[in-house]
Structures are given as structure tokens and as C-alpha cells.
Amino acid sequence: MANFELTGSIIALATPFLENGKVDYAAFDRMLDFYASNGTAGVVVCGTSGETPTLTEEEDAEMFAHTVKKVAGRMKVIAGTGSNCTAECIKYTGTAKAAGVDAVLVVGPYYNKPSQKGMYEHFAAVAEAVDVPIIMYNVPGRTGSKINAETTLALAEKYPNIVGIKEASGNIASIEALVAGRKPGFKIYSGDDATSMVSNLLGADGCISVAAGVIPADFSAMMKYSLEGNLEKALEIHYKYRNLFSLLFIESNPIPVKAALAEMGMIKEIYRLPLCPMAPENRAKLVAEMKKLGIVK
Q: Within the chain, what is the greatest distance between any pair of CA atoms?
């Protein structure tokens, strides 16, 4: 498989809902247009930020197809197809490929805490079953287990369709290990907004971001400058939004980003249980920072 070409700002999409609990496609399309017109290179649909644990298999399939059609080549479309059941992951990945996505994002199996051998065999099985670009996703804070850099690099070496990793541990040493050992063309994306600029300076290829959903133009610029090595301009944007990066994780993602998007008039602030609205004191901090930055009035 040829090198997968995607660098820069990639947005982890929130899933907007209507009062009746269904997906709000009018709001979703508004978000996609907003992101496409503000320098975004790619979007992830039905990932962590999309409340995917509460989406049905039918909703996932519908959102994959809808996003591909609406984006119409303006950005890369990446579908979240991870599961802690390898057979289910293969099925979801096949559905995403049939919808025409550019790649899939496969999180390390969660809750059952596989060994590194189990991790390897899980991703190997998916790569062998579905010929689609696969981006691995290491987020030990959510899954309860990590994908070691050695495991990632071994998989990438053997399977041409394992094209990258979202490294969301927040551990710069993990980024360094991946950059130092990767084969040519293998993409490394930060999954942590606060360290994304530094990760790029160390050799990463961009960020699959939550904050970019709120500040798409400036986040895209920060990615561009850091990838080019323009430290002065990259630092200027980083420090401008440093507090926002933190506040967007003051409660579990995607609660704060959905609150922020609602404040911006992009979506209705509706969650599916067990997620619920932010504590008032946390929301006040987030809104105050957004006003300070001029994101909302």
C-alpha cells in the first residue's frame, strides 16, 4: 500500500444530538463545512469525541457514509472502528471501508487488558482481514492498557496497511520512540493537544485534536508552523490557547468540547448517558476562557 498522505490538523468530531436522541445531521453538516473552510486536513467520525460507545452499529454505518458524502474530498475521512472484540472490530472496519472512508482509527482493545502479544495479534488480524489504511490508537488513560512503541513498530514493519498511530498517552518519550524507530512514511499523530506542537517539532506529523473542533483555523496554523519548524509562530499560538487546551479536559471528553460548541451556536448541548452536562463551576471556567479569547462574546 502506498504511503498514506495526511499531515496537520485532524479533528476528532463530536456527535451532535437532537432532543429526541437522534443524530442531528444539520448541525453535523454545519460543523463539517466550518472545519473544511478553516484549514482542517482530516476528520475522525465515531471516535472517542463522538460518544461512540453509545452509538449503535447502524448509526456508525450511517455516519460513516454520510460523512464521506458530505465532505466530498475536501478533507480526509477517518472512521473510528475500534472494539475490544477483534471479530467486531473487523466487521466495523469492513463497514467503514465499504462507505469509502480514507482510513480507520482502531483503538487498543479496552477493559480486557491484552498483553503486548495480544495487542499484536489483534491489529494483525484486522490488517489481514480488511485492506484499508489503519491508524492505531494508543490511549491508555481510557483503555486501561497501552500499546508499546515496539509493538506498533513491529506491526507497521509487517503490515503495509498499518499506516500510522494516534499516540494519546501525553508521554513525549513515546512520541520520541516512535519517531526514532519508524519506517519511512509511517505517520505519527499526537492525540494530546497540549503537547501536539512539541510532538511535531520532534518529528510527528500532526494531531488528531479535540481543541481544533473549537479553534480550527488557529490550530491548523499551529500545526503548519510546527511542522515547518517555525518555532516563534507555533509558540505564539500554543501559549495563546494553553489554558483552553487544559479546560477542554477539565471533565471527560467530549463533555467540555460539546459545551464549547453549544456556546458557539454550532450544536445543541445534548449528551447520551452516562455522559451529562458539565458541573456549573467548570462550565463557568470554560466559558470565561472562551470569552477572553474572543471565541464567544
A: 52
